[in-house]
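Tutorial handout. Part one gives the primary structure; part two gives the three-dimensional structure as tokens.
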Amino acid sequence: NRFIDDYWQRSVKLGSFEKAWEAIGHEGVYYLMLGTTHPPYDCVSINVTATFPKCAIHYEVTKYNASIPFTETYKGAALVHGDVRGVESTIEWFKNDNNQKEAARASAHELGLVQDCTSHESQRPQSFKGPALPTVAQSSSGSAHGTLCEHFHAIITGSVRRRQTQVLYTEKDSRCFVLYYTDTSDYELWVHKDETDFIPRCCEFAFTFVTYELETYYNFNKAVCKTL
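Part two.
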């Protein structure tokens, strides 16, 4: 029989106890604290600017290097793709591609994002122009969640860059969360801006546990991040 460490460490099995929406479903700013890669930035943040309950979020990412200095920013959306506790907790991240602005604009126009995935009302970002879009009909289960999220996934695929992550751990009230990137096998620990003085203990333990014997990096320069 394999030891328990062999089963849990350096794997995504820990994430089967989590729900993806609990990680990203709160508006606010989060900082990249720990990772198995070391990006050339002093500060990397993600600002969750809008949430569509149990379905999707809008976000803005800022990456800043103080020594050059250099700032990279982009916007995107993240879709809760699989969120069944005990089975999987998967998020797909869609990053706007500047070379495909028209395609992304057309996708967003066709989609007609709603303020609440369980609501009948539909609302588009103010930056998009054109005739009013119809509301998203509710599914037979009484929720628009399934219809909207499937439509979102079908439309946006191919018009923007995307990556997929699995949530391995999230702290209560989204104080922090640990992600695993399926395309690169990298791990990241993100912390809410109010928790940067001390990484919440359980998140730190979960990250350390799943990255056992892997090289990890501290990617947060507090002095730099606090000035942004």
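Part three, for discussion. The beta strands are 28-35, 43-52, 56-65, 70-84, 88-95, 161-170, 176-181, 187-192, 217-218. The first strand starts at residue 28 and ends at 35.
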